[in-house]
Amino acid sequence: MPWRLRSTDAIKSLAAVRESITSADAGRVTAWNDAAADDRRRLLEAQLAGAGVRAARLGSQPPGVIAQLALELGRAGVNITDMALYPAADMSEGVVALWIAGSDAAERAERLVTQLGFPVARA
After folding, report:
1. Does residue 98 carry a pLDDT above 50?
2. Which stretch, 71-75, 86-90, 112-116, has highest mean pLDDT?
3. Which residues share a beta bridge with 87?
4. How many beta carbons lie within 10 A of that of residue 55, not counting itself?
5. Are 23 and 29 a contacting pair, CB within 8 Å?
């Protein structure tokens, strides 16, 4: 039954964030989102047996950039452990967040992405 307890906790958490969204409580929504990002990072690191995971956030990107990045990183032998997309409200631009395991691979990815002309900010 531990799974049911965890799912009950998850349902309560989602109900709380739903209330935060419907009441337009930006502070609570931001806090929940930040906590979820921390949980995601810890899960990624646990799945990689303690290997370091670094995130790189790329600013506004044109259409097709995801395919280009994936192909170029794959050719360079860099594995994208996880990825998230954060589009702007009007969907005209957005941010691509890449998680790369291992500092050597993350540094190679950062150099390659920069060489491709995309601005990178470490998360």
Report:
1. yes
2. 71-75
3. 94
4. 20
5. no
Q: Is the pLDDT of residue 110 over 80?
A: yes
DSSP letter for each residue of the chain:
-HHHHHHHHHHHHHHHHHHHHHTT-HHHHHHHHHHHHHHHHHHHHHHTTT--EEEEEE-S--TTHHHHHHHHHHHTT--EEEEEEEE-TTSS-EEEEEEEESHHHHHHHHHHHHHTT--EEE-
Please state, in angstroms and rounded to a whole number, the distance separating the CA atoms of residues 105 and 79.
8
The answer to whether the CB of 114 falls within 8 A of the CB of 107 is no
Token duo for residue 3: 């799974």
**pLDDT tens sequence across 18-77:** 898 899 888 888 888 888 777 777 766 666 544 444 555 666 666 777 888 889 999 999
